[in-house]
Design goal:
CATH class of the largest domain: Alpha Beta
Largest sheet: 7 strands, mixed
Strand content: 5-15%
Number of domains: 2
Radius of gyration: 21 Å
CATH architecture of the largest domain: 3-Layer(aba) Sandwich
Low-confidence stretches: none
Helix content: 40-55%
Order of helices and strands: EHHEHEHEHEHEHEEHHHEEHEHHEHH
CATH superfamily of the largest domain: Type I PLP-dependent aspartate aminotransferase-like (Major domain)
Number of strands: 12
Shape: globular
Strand order of the largest sheet: 2-8-7-6-5-3-4
């Protein structure tokens, strides 16, 4: 039996998404940009999906821009606003690389965080200036699960850079938080379908009315000329269905997943010495248990877990295979050696009690083996 504890990387397709996509994979095929009845049917499907996504995210349907995923949405937010305004960008040091690299490539400023991964509001204020056009602070971190207070961020922006637009990467937050409320201060907000049971390769960017934005992709003028390209109709309707279903059962899912996450983390900590729960005192997503296991190399640990049919990660899935420790942990003040002991275990709505039990047993067994004198000698 495979135990999947990497839902923060991607999570299984929901049945609601599959059912919504199926007609567009088995017969329906229109191009929404056309004018005949087959094309109009596709356009109606996209428009209906747009309404659904907007309702969950707390915006108008016309403020939704469909993209190929969270990375494109993040890049469109950063590059689009800077191109439109000529201003500068500021982001936190723990952003997803889709934001961090986009800001760095444009000479932006990077703001530090505290030991729990919460943005330092004083440093943020000091980093803002009259020419700041965009500030990007993710709603929930994809590695350690820390939840940021965007209302507090917006207050700092109002005092120091009132013309700047707030962007939030809500990709990891979307399945677990009320994004419409917590993300309300953001003029731009990114999501990705595969994080909440939609298909891979589709996402959306909320662009609220009045936010200046130059498109990355030019061509046919789709998405109100903000993102050209033929619509991925099946992906869009699947994402919308998954997002609606995720919002409908969020309260129940959060409660069940948090209990299992806590049992997973406490079970490992009870059986092993030297286990540290990252960001333990911060508000965190209910599904992520980010642990540091003293004296255990996470690369070796993940190999042993994989051999035991347990899927986990050391951090962001985009950084898998990277030789450098997590930039998130580095920003939080965790040393390189300790960062190499990090393990991210993330649950989803399909996780079971058996997954938790097997996860605890497998991690404990693998870590004990790696800590043994024989393992050190090798």
């Amino acid at each position: 039996m495979t135990v999947y504890l990497d839902h923060a990387a991607t999570t299984p397709l929901r049945r609601e998404a599959f059912d919504a996509m199926l007609p567009w994979l088995t017969g329906a095929f229109g191009n929404p940009s056309g004018g005949h009845r087959v094309a109009r049917a596709a356009r109606r499907a996209v428009d209906d999906a747009r309404e659904t996504v907007a309702a969950v995210l707390g915006c108008d349907a016309g403020e939704i821009v469909f993209t190929s995923g969270g990375t494109e949405a993040d890049n469109l937010a950063v590059a689009g606003v800077l191109a439109a305004t000529g201003g500068g960008a500021v982001c936190t040091a723990i952003e997803h690389h889709a934001v961090l690299h986009a800001v760095e490539a444009r000479g932006g400023r990077i703001v530090g965080v505290d030991g729990d991964g919460l943005v330092d509001l004083d440093l943020l204020g000091a980093s803002l200036s009259a020419d700041t056009a965009l500030v990007s602070v993710m709603l929930a971190n994809n590695e350690v699960g820390t939840i940021e207070d965007l209302h507090a961020v917006a207050a700092v922006m109002a005092a120091h850079a009132p013309r700047a637009v707030l962007h939030t990467d809500a990709v990891q937050a979307a399945p677990w938080l009320d994004v419409a409320t917590l993300g309300a201060p953001a003029g731009l907000l990114s999501i990705a379908g595969h994080k909440f049971g939609g298909p891979q390769g589709v996402g959306a960017l909320v662009v609220r009315a009045g936010v200046p934005l130059v498109p990355l992709l030019r061509g046919g003028g789709q998405e109100r000329e903000r993102r050209s390209g033929t619509h991925n109709v099946a992906g869009i309707v699947g994402m919308a269905a998954a997002l609606a279903a995720s919002a409908a059962d969020r309260e129940e899912a959060v409660s069940a997943v948090r209990l299992r996450r806590d049992r997973l983390a406490s079970g490992i900590a009870a059986a092993l010495d030297g286990v540290t729960l990252t960001a333990a005192t911060a508000p965190r997503l209910p599904n992520i248990a980010h642990l540091r296991l003293e004296g255990v190399d996470n690369e070796a640990l993940l190999l042993l877990l994989d051999d035991a049919d347990v899927c986990a990660s050391a951090g962001s899935s985009c950084a898998s295979g990277a030789t450098e420790p997590s930039h998130v942990l580095a920003a939080m003040g965790v040393g390189r050696d300790e960062a190499r002991s990090a393990l991210r275990l993330s649950l989803g709505r399909t996780s079971t009690d058996d997954d938790v039990a097997m996860g605890v047993s497998s991690v404990v067994t693998a870590a004990t083996r790696l800590r043994s004198p024989a393992a050190v000698a090798r």
